[in-house]
Amino acid sequence: MAPLLSDTSKALLSKPVFANIATVNDRCEPQLTPVWIDFEGDDILFNTAEGRTKAVNLRKHPDLAISVVDPADPYNSVLIVRGKAIEITEEGADEHIDALAQKYLGRTPYPFRQPGEKRLKVRVRIERVVSEPSPPSS
Amino acid sequence: MAPLLSDTSKALLSKPVFANIATVNDRCEPQLTPVWIDFEGDDILFNTAEGRTKAVNLRKHPDLAISVVDPADPYNSVLIVRGKAIEITEEGADEHIDALAQKYLGRTPYPFRQPGEKRLKVRVRIERVVSEPSPPSS
Fold this sequence. Notes:
Order of helices and strands of chain A: HEEEEHEEHE
Shape of chain A: globular
Distance between the termini of chain A: 31 Å
Number of helices of chain A: 3
CATH class of chain A: Mainly Beta
Helix content of chain A: 10-25%
Structural class of chain A: alpha+beta
Oligomer: homodimer
Largest interface: A-B, 26 and 26 residues
Number of strands of chain A: 7
Strand content of chain A: 35-45%
Protein backbone atom coordinates (compact mmCIF):
# COMPACT_ATOMS: atom_id res chain seq x y z
CA MET A 1 0.00 0.00 0.00
CA ALA A 2 1.24 3.46 -0.90
CA PRO A 3 2.20 5.78 1.95
CA LEU A 4 -0.45 8.34 2.83
CA LEU A 5 -0.04 12.08 2.57
CA SER A 6 -0.11 13.63 6.02
CA ASP A 7 -2.42 16.54 6.78
CA THR A 8 0.64 18.79 6.95
CA SER A 9 1.72 17.58 3.49
CA LYS A 10 -1.73 18.23 2.07
CA ALA A 11 -1.74 21.70 3.60
CA LEU A 12 1.63 22.44 1.95
CA LEU A 13 0.45 21.04 -1.40
CA SER A 14 -2.62 23.26 -1.20
CA LYS A 15 -0.46 26.39 -1.19
CA PRO A 16 0.78 27.91 -4.49
CA VAL A 17 4.33 26.73 -3.80
CA PHE A 18 6.53 25.38 -6.59
CA ALA A 19 7.67 21.78 -6.58
CA ASN A 20 10.79 20.35 -8.17
CA ILE A 21 10.46 17.09 -10.06
CA ALA A 22 13.52 14.90 -10.68
CA THR A 23 13.46 12.31 -13.46
CA VAL A 24 16.21 10.33 -15.19
CA ASN A 25 17.09 10.02 -18.84
CA ASP A 26 18.41 7.02 -20.78
CA ARG A 27 21.94 7.61 -19.58
CA CYS A 28 20.74 7.59 -15.97
CA GLU A 29 21.39 11.32 -15.63
CA PRO A 30 19.04 13.23 -13.35
CA GLN A 31 16.98 16.10 -14.73
CA LEU A 32 15.08 18.70 -12.73
CA THR A 33 12.11 20.91 -13.49
CA PRO A 34 10.13 23.31 -11.32
CA VAL A 35 6.41 22.62 -11.67
CA TRP A 36 2.99 23.54 -10.36
CA ILE A 37 1.56 20.76 -8.28
CA ASP A 38 -1.50 19.46 -6.50
CA PHE A 39 -2.87 16.19 -5.16
CA GLU A 40 -5.87 13.88 -5.35
CA GLY A 41 -6.37 11.53 -2.44
CA ASP A 42 -2.86 10.35 -1.65
CA ASP A 43 -1.47 10.75 -5.17
CA ILE A 44 0.46 13.80 -6.29
CA LEU A 45 -0.51 15.34 -9.65
CA PHE A 46 1.37 17.63 -11.96
CA ASN A 47 0.97 18.76 -15.54
CA THR A 48 3.35 18.83 -18.46
CA ALA A 49 3.14 18.76 -22.25
CA GLU A 50 3.82 16.09 -24.86
CA GLY A 51 7.47 16.11 -25.93
CA ARG A 52 8.87 17.73 -22.79
CA THR A 53 11.94 16.07 -21.29
CA LYS A 54 10.18 14.89 -18.16
CA ALA A 55 7.33 13.31 -20.12
CA VAL A 56 9.84 11.52 -22.38
CA ASN A 57 11.88 10.39 -19.36
CA LEU A 58 8.90 9.21 -17.33
CA ARG A 59 7.50 7.07 -20.14
CA LYS A 60 10.74 5.07 -20.07
CA HIS A 61 11.65 5.40 -16.39
CA PRO A 62 8.63 6.07 -14.20
CA ASP A 63 10.74 6.64 -11.07
CA LEU A 64 10.79 10.20 -9.87
CA ALA A 65 11.37 12.34 -6.82
CA ILE A 66 9.47 15.44 -5.76
CA SER A 67 10.59 18.20 -3.43
CA VAL A 68 8.35 20.99 -2.14
CA VAL A 69 9.91 23.60 0.13
CA ASP A 70 7.67 26.34 1.50
CA PRO A 71 9.72 29.55 1.15
CA ALA A 72 7.79 30.95 4.13
CA ASP A 73 9.13 28.17 6.41
CA PRO A 74 11.97 26.39 4.57
CA TYR A 75 13.33 24.55 7.62
CA ASN A 76 10.07 22.96 8.76
CA SER A 77 7.68 22.91 5.85
CA VAL A 78 9.42 20.53 3.46
CA LEU A 79 7.90 17.59 1.63
CA ILE A 80 10.17 15.14 -0.18
CA VAL A 81 8.84 11.96 -1.72
CA ARG A 82 9.97 9.24 -4.06
CA GLY A 83 7.47 7.51 -6.28
CA LYS A 84 6.39 6.44 -9.72
CA ALA A 85 4.42 8.09 -12.49
CA ILE A 86 1.58 5.56 -12.72
CA GLU A 87 -0.46 7.49 -15.31
CA ILE A 88 0.43 10.04 -17.99
CA THR A 89 -2.70 11.05 -19.83
CA GLU A 90 -4.27 13.71 -22.02
CA GLU A 91 -7.62 12.94 -20.39
CA GLY A 92 -8.57 15.82 -18.12
CA ALA A 93 -5.17 17.45 -18.67
CA ASP A 94 -6.56 20.73 -20.06
CA GLU A 95 -8.98 21.12 -17.17
CA HIS A 96 -6.16 20.27 -14.78
CA ILE A 97 -3.75 22.94 -16.10
CA ASP A 98 -6.60 25.46 -15.93
CA ALA A 99 -7.22 24.54 -12.29
CA LEU A 100 -3.49 24.89 -11.57
CA ALA A 101 -3.47 28.32 -13.25
CA GLN A 102 -6.30 29.33 -10.93
CA LYS A 103 -4.32 28.09 -7.94
CA TYR A 104 -0.96 29.64 -8.88
CA LEU A 105 -1.93 32.71 -10.89
CA GLY A 106 -5.40 33.41 -9.56
CA ARG A 107 -6.89 33.23 -13.05
CA THR A 108 -8.06 30.71 -15.58
CA PRO A 109 -7.73 29.50 -18.36
CA TYR A 110 -4.01 28.74 -18.34
CA PRO A 111 -2.46 31.70 -20.16
CA PHE A 112 0.80 30.10 -21.40
CA ARG A 113 -0.69 27.44 -23.67
CA GLN A 114 1.22 27.08 -26.94
CA PRO A 115 -0.50 26.45 -30.29
CA GLY A 116 -0.77 22.71 -30.91
CA GLU A 117 0.43 21.84 -27.43
CA LYS A 118 -0.94 18.62 -25.95
CA ARG A 119 -1.14 18.89 -22.19
CA LEU A 120 -0.54 15.80 -20.04
CA LYS A 121 -1.67 15.10 -16.51
CA VAL A 122 0.78 12.98 -14.54
CA ARG A 123 -0.33 10.96 -11.53
CA VAL A 124 2.38 10.05 -9.03
CA ARG A 125 1.96 7.14 -6.66
CA ILE A 126 4.14 7.79 -3.63
CA GLU A 127 6.46 4.96 -2.63
CA ARG A 128 8.41 6.63 0.13
CA VAL A 129 7.97 9.82 2.12
CA VAL A 130 11.51 11.03 2.82
CA SER A 131 10.49 14.17 4.67
CA GLU A 132 7.18 15.76 5.54
CA PRO A 133 6.26 19.09 7.12
CA SER A 134 6.32 19.21 10.92
CA PRO A 135 2.97 19.80 12.60
CA PRO A 136 2.65 23.37 13.85
CA SER A 137 3.89 23.62 17.42
CA SER A 138 1.11 24.39 19.86
CA MET B 1 35.02 24.24 -21.57
CA ALA B 2 32.34 24.43 -18.91
CA PRO B 3 29.49 26.88 -19.45
CA LEU B 4 29.84 30.14 -17.54
CA LEU B 5 27.46 31.36 -14.88
CA SER B 6 25.68 34.49 -16.08
CA ASP B 7 25.60 37.60 -13.93
CA THR B 8 21.91 36.97 -13.32
CA SER B 9 22.70 33.41 -12.16
CA LYS B 10 25.40 34.68 -9.81
CA ALA B 11 23.01 37.28 -8.42
CA LEU B 12 20.43 34.54 -7.74
CA LEU B 13 23.05 32.26 -6.16
CA SER B 14 24.11 35.13 -3.90
CA LYS B 15 20.64 35.29 -2.33
CA PRO B 16 19.73 32.96 0.57
CA VAL B 17 17.46 30.91 -1.68
CA PHE B 18 17.30 27.12 -1.35
CA ALA B 19 18.46 24.89 -4.17
CA ASN B 20 17.30 21.38 -4.96
CA ILE B 21 19.94 18.83 -5.89
CA ALA B 22 18.98 15.69 -7.83
CA THR B 23 21.27 12.66 -7.77
CA VAL B 24 20.75 9.02 -8.76
CA ASN B 25 21.26 5.85 -6.79
CA ASP B 26 22.49 2.43 -7.93
CA ARG B 27 19.08 1.51 -9.29
CA CYS B 28 19.02 4.70 -11.38
CA GLU B 29 16.29 6.19 -9.19
CA PRO B 30 16.40 9.95 -8.74
CA GLN B 31 16.73 11.44 -5.26
CA LEU B 32 16.17 15.05 -4.27
CA THR B 33 17.42 17.18 -1.41
CA PRO B 34 16.98 20.88 -0.66
CA VAL B 35 20.36 22.45 0.14
CA TRP B 36 22.12 25.70 0.85
CA ILE B 37 24.24 26.74 -2.09
CA ASP B 38 26.87 29.16 -3.31
CA PHE B 39 29.43 29.41 -6.10
CA GLU B 40 33.11 29.99 -6.77
CA GLY B 41 34.04 31.25 -10.20
CA ASP B 42 31.78 29.29 -12.50
CA ASP B 43 31.44 26.23 -10.26
CA ILE B 44 28.51 25.70 -7.92
CA LEU B 45 29.31 24.59 -4.36
CA PHE B 46 27.18 22.93 -1.74
CA ASN B 47 27.84 21.17 1.54
CA THR B 48 26.75 17.81 2.87
CA ALA B 49 27.99 15.26 5.40
CA GLU B 50 29.69 11.89 5.10
CA GLY B 51 27.15 9.09 4.81
CA ARG B 52 24.27 11.18 3.45
CA THR B 53 22.44 9.74 0.46
CA LYS B 54 23.61 12.40 -1.96
CA ALA B 55 27.27 11.96 -0.95
CA VAL B 56 26.96 8.18 -1.38
CA ASN B 57 25.20 8.62 -4.74
CA LEU B 58 27.63 11.20 -6.09
CA ARG B 59 30.71 9.11 -5.32
CA LYS B 60 29.32 6.44 -7.66
CA HIS B 61 27.42 8.62 -10.13
CA PRO B 62 28.77 12.16 -10.29
CA ASP B 63 25.96 13.37 -12.55
CA LEU B 64 23.54 15.73 -10.91
CA ALA B 65 21.04 18.47 -11.60
CA ILE B 66 20.46 21.65 -9.63
CA SER B 67 17.37 23.85 -9.57
CA VAL B 68 17.16 27.24 -7.87
CA VAL B 69 13.84 29.09 -8.00
CA ASP B 70 13.63 32.52 -6.40
CA PRO B 71 10.33 32.52 -4.50
CA ALA B 72 10.20 36.29 -4.99
CA ASP B 73 10.12 35.89 -8.80
CA PRO B 74 9.46 32.22 -9.59
CA TYR B 75 8.61 32.74 -13.27
CA ASN B 76 11.72 34.69 -14.25
CA SER B 77 14.40 34.00 -11.68
CA VAL B 78 15.07 30.31 -12.21
CA LEU B 79 18.43 28.61 -12.61
CA ILE B 80 18.56 24.98 -13.73
CA VAL B 81 21.83 23.29 -14.55
CA ARG B 82 23.14 19.81 -15.20
CA GLY B 83 26.68 18.95 -14.23
CA LYS B 84 29.06 16.70 -12.39
CA ALA B 85 30.41 16.63 -8.85
CA ILE B 86 34.11 16.97 -9.67
CA GLU B 87 35.30 17.19 -6.05
CA ILE B 88 33.89 15.94 -2.74
CA THR B 89 36.25 16.89 0.05
CA GLU B 90 36.55 17.44 3.79
CA GLU B 91 39.12 20.14 3.09
CA GLY B 92 37.60 23.52 3.84
CA ALA B 93 34.19 21.92 4.40
CA ASP B 94 33.78 23.18 7.98
CA GLU B 95 34.64 26.74 7.00
CA HIS B 96 32.28 26.41 4.04
CA ILE B 97 29.26 25.31 6.11
CA ASP B 98 29.98 28.15 8.53
CA ALA B 99 29.98 30.62 5.63
CA LEU B 100 26.70 29.16 4.38
CA ALA B 101 25.18 29.49 7.87
CA GLN B 102 26.16 33.15 7.79
CA LYS B 103 24.52 33.55 4.39
CA TYR B 104 21.30 31.67 5.18
CA LEU B 105 20.84 32.19 8.91
CA GLY B 106 22.78 35.40 9.46
CA ARG B 107 24.98 33.73 12.06
CA THR B 108 28.02 31.54 12.34
CA PRO B 109 29.21 28.89 13.26
CA TYR B 110 26.75 26.45 11.67
CA PRO B 111 24.36 25.60 14.52
CA PHE B 112 23.08 22.19 13.34
CA ARG B 113 26.38 20.30 13.41
CA GLN B 114 26.01 16.78 14.82
CA PRO B 115 28.62 15.15 17.09
CA GLY B 116 31.13 13.22 14.98
CA GLU B 117 29.74 14.58 11.72
CA LYS B 118 32.24 14.96 8.88
CA ARG B 119 31.22 17.80 6.62
CA LEU B 120 31.93 17.60 2.90
CA LYS B 121 32.23 20.38 0.37
CA VAL B 122 31.00 19.43 -3.09
CA ARG B 123 32.17 21.26 -6.19
CA VAL B 124 29.92 21.05 -9.24
CA ARG B 125 31.25 21.66 -12.71
CA ILE B 126 28.37 22.81 -14.88
CA GLU B 127 27.91 20.93 -18.16
CA ARG B 128 24.68 22.47 -19.37
CA VAL B 129 22.66 25.48 -18.36
CA VAL B 130 19.04 24.49 -18.95
CA SER B 131 17.53 27.74 -17.72
CA GLU B 132 18.95 30.94 -16.29
CA PRO B 133 17.33 34.02 -14.79
CA SER B 134 16.17 36.67 -17.24
CA PRO B 135 17.98 39.99 -17.04
CA PRO B 136 15.85 42.62 -15.32
CA SER B 137 13.75 44.48 -17.85
CA SER B 138 14.80 48.09 -18.21
